[in-house]
Design brief:
By secondary structure, the protein is of the alpha/beta class. It has 5 helices and 12 strands. It folds into 2 domains: 5-104, Translation factors (Elongation Factor Tu (Ef-tu), domain 3); 117-249, Nucleotide-binding domain of ferredoxin-NADP reductase (FNR) module (Rossmann fold).
Length: 254
């Protein structure tokens, strides 16, 4: 199957953290974008010396269907000092256009899954595909009665991407448990980031508390490669079959 290339026009930008931006685009050729939550697109750009490059970004858009013409195509972008991709995004004015291709990937919820619980574990911008999955998870909780635990890792409260959205979703859906884990600093008591179910430490260290169970669980791991590897080994040790531990590793690229 031929790879689909298309232009994206920037329609909005907001900072999620000091070095992470949430960018909204529309497909600028009037065509729909047929994607499944959990997939990613690639952004294409050129270096100053004329060399070409591309970077992959999971779609953050919350839809359980293909994106129609004019519907938002959303991604989260980490700004890396001196990075060529960072320069591209920082220099892109609203209304500006970039080139993309995709979508790609199989880091998606499977219709054939017969589990009763999902363990979703993410760090950094690796949390993005889980934001995109929320509409699907809402349907699965309602129709199949599944439970969902989202373990999100961040160094500080300021770096907890989409934390307010996950917290609100958990408050509205009893089957969804949101557990932010802060490795360096906890939120101040009474602050907007404070959460009754938060932990101090790395997400991989909190995983055992939730008793992974081979009979009921399917796990999704996305983010820092060390975290993904540590959780993968822990889940295998708990008896989860490898097909029930789905992984994507995120590495910051310049």
């Amino acid at each position: 199957m031929a790879i689909v290339h298309f232009p994206l026009k920037l329609t909005g930008r907001r900072m999620l953290a000091p070095s992470v931006a949430h960018l909204s685009f529309v497909r600028d050729d009037g065509q729909p974008l047929d994607y499944i939550p959990g997939q990613f697109i690639q952004i294409h750009f050129d270096y100053a010396d004329g060399a070409s490059a591309r970077r992959s970004y999971s779609l953050a858009t919350q839809h359980d269907h293909a994106l129609g013409p004019g519907e938002a195509v959303e991604i989260a972008v980490s700004y890396v000092p001196g990075g060529a991709a960072t320069a591209l995004f920082e220099g892109l004015a609203e209304g500006g256009q970039i080139n993309a291709s995709g979508p790609f990937g199989r880091f998606c919820l499977m219709p054939s899954d017969a589990n009763t619980r999902y363990l979703l574990i993410g760090t950094g911008t690796g949390i993005t595909p889980f934001r995109a999955m929320l509409p699907q998870l809402e349907i699965l909780m309602r129709e199949r009665g599944i439970e969902v635990i989202l373990l999100q890792g961040a160094r500080t409260p300021e770096e907890l991407l989409y934390g307010d959205e996950f917290r609100a979703f958990a408050e509205a859906h009893p089957g969804f448990r949101f557990v932010p884990c802060f490795s360096r600093k906890l939120p101040e008591p009474g602050s907007p980031q404070a959460h009754a179910d938060m932990r101090h430490g790395y997400v991989q260290n909190a995983l055992a508390e939730f008793a992974p169970n081979a009979d009921s669980d399917i796990a999704y791991l996305c983010g820092n490669p060390n975290m993904v590897d540590a959780c993968f080994e822990a889940l295998k040790a708990a008896g989860l079959p490898i097909p029930h531990v789905r992984r994507e590793k995120y590495v910051s690229n310049k």
